[in-house]
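Re: that chain you flagged

S.,

Sorry for the slow reply, it's been a week of failed gels. I finally had a moment to sit down with the sequence you sent. For the record, here it is as I used it:
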Amino acid sequence: MSSEQVERAETFRKLHHTGRILVLLNVWDAASARVFELAGAPAIATTSSGLAASNGYPDGQKIPHDRLLDAVRRMVRVVKIPLSVDLEAGYGRTIAEVKETVRAIVETGAIGMNIEDRAEPPALLAEKIRAVREVAIETGVPLVINARTDIYLRGIGEANARLDETMRRIRAYADAGADSAFVPGLTDLTVIGQIASKSPLPLNVMFSPGMPAVAELQAAGVARLSIGGAAAFAAMSLTRKIAQELLTQGTYDTILSSLTITHPEVMKMFPAD
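Prediction finished late last night. Pasting the structure tokens below so you have them in one place:
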């Protein structure tokens, strides 16, 4: 693997430990990756739902393995900043298959990944994390592993037991070799602060309606904020609004009010080769 890929992985890891929250914008294709880079993003990550939708598939590991890898290669080709990949549950039925997927992701030039427990036993995700770390050592790329637990997102267990269960899982994933802990489904700043203060790993939360502002999250100890599929769905929403206006009213107001990137700008965004 190239020294540039190793440097990007190391840079990405450091971004979780600066004392300033990492706002990690989630991309769904090469164009969104390049737009976010030009907007000043220090790093980006894929959104599984947005990437799947942009390729014509629903979320939940329904996109074919090869299509996922091709999409990541296209993104890596056009950006210089670190790119992490949402691997969902690992795209493999066995630990060996998960390891093969991770090796393939490393070959695309990506430098990190999310991997999640869903409703599965936490011991299984811990085993997958150890497998990912083995691949990192074998390839020489210090992959940044973001271990996601879905206790709050899926409402697993009794409400009054979720904090303790989340912390138990985070500690297990830290012991297995994870670099950060991803707990989607949180909006309560008090709970966010409790998890951030107790977690042995930098805490990653995900935007959802009701989420406190970035400055409040940083003050609560959050290291990383992801936006999931929100930007991808916002882009789709704008596309639908444009279509509805043109098809029903025959006017161009939505296009004209939203068109802030020109054709010449877009043509200069991407390498020709």
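What I noticed first: Residues 230-248 form the longest helix (19 residues).

Talk soon,
D.
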